[in-house]
Specification:
6-stranded mixed beta sheet, 585 residues, 17 helices, disordered C terminus, Immunoglobulin-like, alpha+beta, single chain, disordered N terminus, Rhopdopsin 7-helix transmembrane proteins
């Protein structure tokens, strides 16, 4: 991601055609800055064998051709280029700057005639320590002194392993300083926004533990380092003496940026799930870029050529995968493609400006950086949307899990708890450290089979629902009620001893007697029998044992006439025997 801009640094661009010898460039009182492109005479030195002495040779002089009205741009070439510029000062301004705003240029030699047959020679470029520059700016500036009405011819020699582009301008020192100040403000805003977004999203990456945010931050950091290297800012402030490293920094950060972009893309677009083959292809690209980084330090020229090949291949693959994801209906791909689209348009504009096809005005020259910034913002919004989508999916999953748990814990007909939940809750009460009683009620609807046989199972289900409603209405604050099976209900009463449980059972039975159970348009009198048992804490009694004693009490209630409560009373019996069931009138 982020690196079609690199094409302007390493892509091949056709050579400009020749033209007639340009006129002398007139410096006047009106203008303070001049584009010297159309006044240049240019000579290609294919093997780099020519010297300044050869420039006096008439045969060599005839090989110079005039430049068309655009910035000289010859792409990725091993040739050395010479440029001749004739200046005539028709102003009172004596101090001028000759400026070449192409920070990646390796070496620029300026020759000014001194005496017949002798030349004043000055050099600059990123092949020299930054401190050697006449003017301490990311671009290259040479001081020229021209007296009023003085005419002078200067010769420039350009040599680089990168793109052969040399935008030559003439400006007064004050005008150049003002232009540089405006550029510095724009660069400060660009890098400031990237830094702020990187810091903010780093915090999100740590808090959310998200790989996507980590890769996104890597994209921003590598973009900042790449553009600071392309613009010469990194050489000025970060490694002003590291000539060897600075020569390799741009390609190094292109490779790193591609690795970050590939990692982000395959994670953000879920390629492992939807496009496993492309996922493996991206893994291969990542390995290739890592090999290229190693090659870059061993052989810069080979590393540069490999990077040139990979720029278009990787960027187009990423765009294709983004388009395929959008076509498939993956909504976050909208942000992905919007960010990439604007970035690529900006990169193309910058590329055309570097090629001299478009004018190198600020909004075109920095279109790639503007697109990169837009991409960073849009991808940040895409991540936010993705995280929100994941959060919603998580909430839906949690809601579904809660619903499933509730369905597993409750009886689908009555809405009371299921037997499984009652058992689990009883076992939880057993582990309490507090020495508090726990009692259990087992209730059975009297003559329920007769209701089913007479009125049908649908009516029986309706009666069960109404019973559940009565139980809920009379349930003590800490009570837990569940359907035990068929027409049987179980009620756990924490913090209730046997007497308190009996009282609660009597209230429940009274509510059942008074409740108008509906069958069709009429009412049907229903009663129930209840067995009560208190959990034997001292014996660590099991749930099954406690239910068995309550069931025995329930059986006793039914045997003695139904519609009553019976309790399983504690008696001195050997461990493992149930207490006798005693009817309660």
């Amino acid at each position: 991601m982020l690196f079609l801009m690199a094409i302007s640094y390493i892509a091949w661009i056709p050579e400009a055609s020749g033209a007639s010898a340009p006129a002398v460039m007139q410096l006047n009182e009106t203008n303070r800055t001049y584009d010297a492109s159309r006044y240049l005479e240019i000579l290609e030195d294919r093997d780099g064998s020519l010297t300044i002495v050869d420039m006096d040779n008439p045969d060599i002089a005839r090989r110079f051709s005039g430049n068309e009205q655009r910035i000289p741009s010859f792409g990725y070439t091993k040739s050395v280029y010479w440029a001749k510029l004739r200046l005539e000062n028709n102003s009172r301004q004596r101090q001028w700057l000759l400026n070449i705003d192409q920070p990646p240029m390796d070496q620029i030699d300026l020759y000014i005639p001194d005496m017949p047959g002798q030349w004043e020679h000055r050099s600059s470029g990123d092949a020299f320590p930054f401190a050697w520059r006449e003017v301490r700016n990311p671009d290259y500036s040479f001081r020229l002194e021209l007296g009023p009405n003085e005419t002078k011819t200067v010769i420039l020699r350009f040599e680089t392993e990168g793109a052969m582009i040399f935008p030559v301008r003439i400006a007064t020192p004050v005008q150049h300083a003002e232009q540089q100040k405006a550029t510095d403000l724009l660069m400060g805003a660009f890098f400031g926004i990237l830094i702020v977004m990187s810091v903010y999203n780093t915090i999100l990456a740590v808090s959310l533990r998200s790989k996507e945010y980590v890769y996104y931050v890597c994209i921003n950091v590598t973009a900042a380092l790449l553009y600071s290297s392309l613009n010469g800012i990194a050489y000025q402030y970060l490694w002003p003496e590291a000539v060897w490293w600075n020569n390799r920094a741009i390609v190094f950060f292109i490779c790193l940026a591609h690795i970050a972009a590939l990692l982000f893309t395959r994670t953000f677009l879920k390629l492992d799930s939807y496009y496993p083959r492309i996922y493996r292809l991206f893994s291969g690209f990542i390995m290739f870029e890592m090999v290229n980084i190693a090659l870059l330090f061993a052989d810069y020229s080979s590393g540069l050529q490999m990077a040139a090949c990979m720029v278009v291949l990787i960027d187009l693959t990423i765009v294709g995968v983004g388009a395929a994801s959008l076509w498939r209906g993956f909504m976050p791909a909208r942000f992905f493609m919007a960010g990439w689209g604007v970035f690529m348009v900006g990169s193309v504009l910058t590329l055309l400006a570097d090629a001299g096809i478009l004018p190198q005005v600020a909004h075109i020259r920095y279109a790639s950086q503007t697109g990169s910034l837009f991409e960073a913002i849009v991808l940040s919004l895409g991540l936010a949307s993705r995280i929100q989508s994941i959060r919603m999916e998580k909430e839906q999953a949690e809601a579904l899990m809660i619903l499933s748990k509730k369905q597993a814990e409750s009886d689908f007909l009555t809405g009371l708890y299921s037997r499984r939940y009652i058992v689990g809750h009883f076992e939880a009460l057993q582990t309490r450290s507090v020495n508090r009683p726990v009692s259990l009620l087992l209730m059975d609807i009297d003559y329920f089979k007769k209701i089913n046989d007479t009125y049908g199972h649908e009516t029986g289900d309706l009666i069960l629902k109404q019973f559940a409603s009565v139980i809920r209405g009379e349930l003590p604050a800490k009570g837990i009620a569940g359907r035990f099976g068929g027409e049987e209900f179980v009620i756990l009463l924490p913090d209730h001893d046997l007497n308190e449980a009996q009282e609660a059972a009597e209230r429940l039975l009274k509510a059942v007697r008074q409740f108008p159970f509906r069958i069709g348009d009429g009412s049907y009198p229903c009663t129930a029998s209840i067995g009560v048992a208190e959990w034997r804490r001292h014996e660590r009694e099991s749930f099954e044992s406690c239910v068995r004693r309550a069931d025995n009490a329930l059986y006793e209630a039914k045997r003695t006439g139904r519609n009553r409560v019976c309790a399983a009373l504690e008696q001195k019996r050997p461990l493992g025997h149930d207490a006798a069931a005693v009817p309660i009138e």
